[in-house]
Amino acid sequence: MEVIVAKFGGTSVGNGERIRKAAESVVKEYMKGKKVVVVVSAINKTTDDILKIVHEAIGDAVTEKQLADIVSMGETTSVRIFSATIESLGVKSEYIDPHMDNWPVITDSNYINAKVNYELTEEKSKEIMNLLDQGIIPVLCGFLGRDETGNITTLGRGGSDITAFLMGHCLSAEEVIIVTDVGGVMSTDPNKLQSAKKLDKISVEEMRDLATHGAQVLHPHALRYKDPLINAKIIGFEHGDLSALGTEIIGPAGDQMLKTTALNSEPISVIAVVGEEILTKRGILSTLTDTLAENDINIYGISTGQNSVTLFIDKAVADRAHEVLHEVVVNNEYLSSLSLGMEIAMITVTSQDFIDTPGIITKVTEPLRRNKINIVEISSSQTSVVIFVDWNDGKKAYELVRRVLE
């Protein structure tokens, strides 16, 4: 029988009516012959209310162990209500929280931002499968874990989504369904642009980058737990139907969510375009990039300064790029000159861990400094760093950077 994991966010279970609608959607899938595991967040604003009380009553004197135990009350309450609601609909259900022997999510003892012990969690998840085989719908607390000595821990930001993806992997689920207060991933924030449209599909890599830049649908931490072999989608709670169309999350492809380092196989050339205070002149960037696009020339990177724009392109098309951009320069009053420079190696470093790693650029570049390798240019996002060095230094720089990740 097909196993699905359905995670309901706090807004999705924000009141009694919504909890019943969510429970009905679970029972509906159960009646189709599916085995359903439910992961539930704390009821909307419960955790915030608890934290406010803790701050007022205890302040900074509260320990991390105490805090994890206290905030767990939000999830331990919601699973009991949700499970009882399922049983009121005529289907057997059991709630599972970290105080119980069959609790599956085992972590280290970092109470506030615990790391999952995969081996122990996979072993304990067999007990969840036993419940499914008995026709029982298990309802698990999202966000929470338990260390090996029995203390409650929390999984940090995106914790409930982590629980859902983790259970999907451990139970070899067919699908993980994230039920939220939106109908899926939108082309932009619908509160800011009414023309926003729902996406039918989005890759894990795209979703991760979107999340790191402020999208609230999923936390990027949770995406590292997404099994590439398991389907996943985001739907809105208003449908009351787990089969509703939402946004499908594709991937990741192979080990792309792990730390990776890549070195381009062919040299990249640098073209520098200069002009007085061109950064303040409208349309300069678009003129340069449009010209290259019209000539089917790809750009690997752009660096801007007050008086210059530097473009990184394939060496194989550098002469043609130089020629077409020269025409732009001589016909634009704001541009004065351009140059075709050295051959460059491009090293791309990617890891979700960068989001929570202060000083990552220093860690990546320090070995290059020690080995007297000059960095021509560097760019970064919250999950990747791209370094440009002289082509002759490329392989050595690549090996040095790769060792940092290892």
Question: What report would you give on this structure?
Answer:
Its EC number is 2.7.2.4. It catalyses: L-aspartate + ATP = 4-phospho-L-aspartate + ADP. GO terms for molecular function: aspartate kinase activity; ATP binding. The chain has 406 residues and is an alpha/beta fold. It has helices spanning 16-31, 46-57, 64-88, 118-133, 159-170, 204-212, 220-223, 284-294, 318-330, 360-370, 394-405; strands spanning 3-8, 35-40, 93-96, 106-107, 137-141, 144-147, 152-154, 175-180, 201-203, 231-236, 247-250, 260-263, 268-274, 301-304, 308-314, 337-350, 375-380, 384-390. Strands 3-5-2-1-8-10-11-9 form an 8-stranded mixed beta sheet, with helices on both faces. Strands 12, 13, 14, 15, 16, 17 and 18 form a 7-stranded antiparallel beta sheet that branches. Strands 4-6-7 form a 3-stranded mixed beta sheet. A hairpin with a 3-residue loop joins strand 14 and strand 15.
